[in-house]
Amino acid sequence: MSPLILNIALLLGAAAVIYFACEFFVNGVEWVGRKLSVGATATGTILAAFGTALPESVITFVAVAFGKSDAQRELGVGAALGGPLVLSTIAYATVGLTLIFAHQHLKRTAEVKRDFQRLARDQGWFLAIFLVKLTVGLVAFSFKPWLGIAFLAAYALYFWQEMRRDESGEEEEELEPLILARKAPGDPSLVLSLVQTLCALVVIFFASRLFVGQLDALGPALGIKPQLLALLLSPIATELPETMNAIIWVRQGKHRLALANISGAMMIQATVPTAFGIFFTPWLLDRSLILAGGLTAIAVAVMFVSFRRGVISRGFLASMGLFYAVFAGLLMALRL
User: How far apart are CA 219 and CA 49, in angstroms?
Assistant: First the structure.
């Protein structure tokens, strides 16, 4: 078997493993949220988002803190910008497209409108933090490393607000039986729910690393420049778990959890990896990263305005993918 065919086979195999592991993860994390009395929205924005964004945050930390060359550390900085771009464009577009292919519509009820208004609030949080993140990357000053603490504090505040959100008046959704306890009578225990969730997360982590590794090897074989690979394809690979979660939850009719997971992951990507980058690198952005950051900010601003005004169609969500297409076109046209 040729190396190219082997790379493609491993790439597709890793993607399949990630998808099936995400089936176990979303099933387990819903039960963990139920057992800990965490609301459905917080289950998506905090528990699921923390689990799926943790591997990328660790990878960024290792790259910027222990990278042996400037190129390795710059890859960590690029991941801190590329992740939010993918989440705010491709991940939301995936929700819209899955709704379309599953022949599901977003009902224009007061409850759905309220969900999107909450999403608008999250987008506002993200946009404010992200603009600070971009501004800090444009200038050099001596006390910049101390600002990393502010980004961690911003996520701590977001975490606190999400966990104390009152969802007592909302109807609980019926959960699928825990996969590891389908034949057991009654609700599963918290311990078993945690075991399933954590085991799935470990599989997702290693399968994601395999996926990224095969993508890195496949790029040169197809003549893709390393810079384009790092900015265009690698972020898609690292955000694959969140995208897979979105597909699974939307397919189950739980678009609220899917959107909350993306929103929560965006908040983590805007703060925790950024803090690591500011702590261990000069955090000065080149033109390609500024372009990525600028289009991310525009995409989020469009969603913020639309969600607040009640624009909640599946077609609008699907159209968010156009921002990533614009980024890819400008990146290659301008040769950044």
Answer: 29
